[in-house]
Backbone:
């Protein structure tokens, strides 16, 4: 495993714990289908189905948010739409689903975590 992929895996683990602490129920991690990959599929406390993209970086000049280009967001949206279409039973008719991003910046032994809802 490369140092970058190892950091990404640790970042996803931290993001899962962060979401669990916010009372999210984790449904699936690293869902890989022919239409794309979703880092985390979760149920928010208000019963909204949430697709979470996780971006992790070491502390430096760039921010993880900078990695979310419009093309990346469109690919993320397409993967989420197709997943939702194949998993209708997970969707609350009143709440629907949304796209979130959790960013993590490695600082010393810990992480600075930011959660962007409904991007």
Residues:
């Amino acid at each position: 495993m490369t140092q970058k992929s190892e950091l990404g895996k640790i970042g996803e683990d931290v993001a899962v714990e962060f979401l669990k602490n916010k009372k999210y129920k984790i449904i699936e991690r690293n869902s890989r289908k022919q239409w794309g990959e979703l880092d985390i599929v979760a149920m928010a406390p208000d019963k909204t189905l949430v697709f979470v993209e996780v971006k992790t970086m070491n502390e430096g000049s760039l921010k993880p948010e900078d990695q979310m280009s419009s093309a990346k967001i469109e690919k993320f949206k397409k993967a989420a739409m197709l997943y939702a279409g194949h998993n209708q039973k997970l969707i609350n008719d009143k709440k629907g689903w949304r796209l979130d991003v959790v960013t993590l910046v490695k600082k010393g032994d810990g992480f600075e975590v930011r959660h962007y809802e409904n991007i």
Q: What stands out?
A: The chain has one domain: 3-116. The mean pLDDT is 92.
